[in-house]
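Thread: "does anyone have the structure for this chain?"

Original post by V.I.:
We have the sequence but no experimental structure in hand. Need at least a predicted one for the grant figures.
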Amino acid sequence: MVAPWGQSQACWCDDSWRDWLARGPRDTLFPHIIGFGPGSGFSATSGWLVRWRWTHPTIAFFASVFLICCWCVHHAGPRTGTIVDSQHGADVIAAQYVLGLLDVVLLAPLWLQIAHLLGADFLWAALVVLVHD
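Reply from O.Q.:
Generated one for you, tokens below.
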């Protein structure tokens, strides 16, 4: 069977995915800027996504400071003993920072991106519990 773009269709059970994984480490988010360092995102010749990659860690930092303040205020309030207290929230945020740094250091392998997204889901669930209490 031939795909519309002219190549034969590959099934997930073929060995083609093993070949793709065996190519070695590469940056799955920004493959064309390996070795240019963090300052390469400020070059006028860089793509717009590369120039905007500073926004995610910046927004994450300010949002985490805000969330830690919310958890601390909530923990100091009249309700104590909730499931999600300030320490659990800070632990989830610290884990997200570690996963984010590992994404940069290890060139964002797929399994680590998924772990980072799973951590974001845990953080969202903790925030929902915080708001509910």
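V.I.: this helps a lot. The two ends are 56 Å apart (CA to CA).
O.Q.: and The chain is about 55% helix and 0% strand.
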